[in-house]
Amino acid sequence: MNKRFLIFTIVFLFVIAACSPKQELSPASGSLDKAEPALLPEDRFLTIAHRGASAYRPEHTLPAYILADEMGADYIELDLRMTKDGRLAVIHDNELQRITGTTGKVSDMLMDELKTVSAGTVFNDRNPDLAKLSYEQLTIPELRDVLMQFGTSVNYYIELKSSLKDSGIEESVIAELERYGITENQGQHDVPPVILQSFSEESLMRIHEIRPEIPLIQLYSFKENADLSPSELELLSSYASGIGIPADSAHAGFIEKIKRWGLDVHVFTVNEEKSIRKLIDMGVDGIFTDRPDVVREIIGRDDF
Ligand code: G3P
Ligand code: CA
């Protein structure tokens, strides 16, 4: 082929490609060069024990997780924060006050210091009917304490709370899960052994790059009716398996829209029977609850 003609052809094709109308965003479109997000089982409603069976026992403690497992929860939920020495503490708040009644921040403390504070005394004071003397000895667990206790006998739904950019929390969590054989496991109750969740898109994208086979849930904190634009959904579909939203923001039209994109919807945090039934009717795929026994009882019945 004549060299000048070859150059003309290449330039012509380049110009045609550049001028072509962009494809409309739709559930079917997506990046071809990245791993697809992991799939969650279809038509499988998930009972997620929020901080364990935390309506009945001190949140994020081993007794709360043991009870959640006994109640038949599909997942035990853990919030993770990094301590000053880069270890993974299972706790929701950075401030210790609400859980321990003491001052201080998780991010300012060494894990060994954190383990000297009672995680059950405040619970006992606030819940005399549920209090147990033994709870006073409970401490804030480290991720590895929970993994050592349960191994592959439960499924984990883990939230990365740390907002520290480049803290390496993503790699640390994955390393711990690998160390205890969690990621290689089949999972209990016919669902994946671990789901990771975060409000940080960046954190989840990072995990998707490292371990695309782990299902990821992008959390949102909608104050009113939930909504996401087609371009937000396009991006979300490139790394996440679903979304987690406040229960009050859920509505049927939104859930239908999300499902059209092949994404699941989990709602937090729902403890009352009437609300649980309403959300199940609406079509949500999972509920975070402090009362996994209540959700299990409802989904065990066929009259809703
Ligand atoms: O992780 C979902 C839900 O737990 C988010 O709420 O504040 O309880 O972590 P929060
Ligand atoms: Ca959480």
Give a structural overview.
With 304 residues, the chain is an alpha/beta fold. The chain has a single domain, classed as TIM Barrel (Alpha-Beta Barrel), CATH 3.20.20. Helices cover 34% and strands 14% of the residues. The chain is built from 12 helices and 9 strands. The chain has an 8-stranded parallel beta barrel, surrounded by 5 helices. Residues 50, 79, 92, 159, 197, 219, 244, 268-269, 288 line the site of SN-glycerol-3-phosphate. This is Glycerophosphoryl diester phosphodiesterase.
Quickly describe the structure.
This protein is globular. The chain has 304 residues and is an alpha/beta fold. 34% of the residues lie in helices and 14% in strands.
Side-by-side strand order of the widest sheet: 1-2-4-5-6-7-8-9
CATH architecture descriptor name: Alpha-Beta Barrel
Model regions low in confidence, pLDDT < 50 over at least 5 residues? 11-24, 28-32
Large-scale geometry:
globular
**Count of β-strands:** 9
How large a portion of the residues is in β-strands, by DSSP E?
A: 5-15%
Q: Briefly note the CATH topology name.
A: TIM Barrel
Cofactors, ions and other ligands in the entry: SN-glycerol-3-phosphate, calcium ion
| Pattern of helices and strands | HEHEEHHHHEHEHEHEHEHEH
- State the domain count: 1
What do the pLDDT scores average to? 90
First and last CA, distance: 72 Å
CATH superfamily: Phosphatidylinositol (PI) phosphodiesterase
- CATH class membership: Alpha Beta
GO molecular function: phosphoric diester hydrolase activity
GO biological process, one term: lipid metabolic process
Organism: Bhargavaea beijingensis
Domain GP-PDE: 45-299
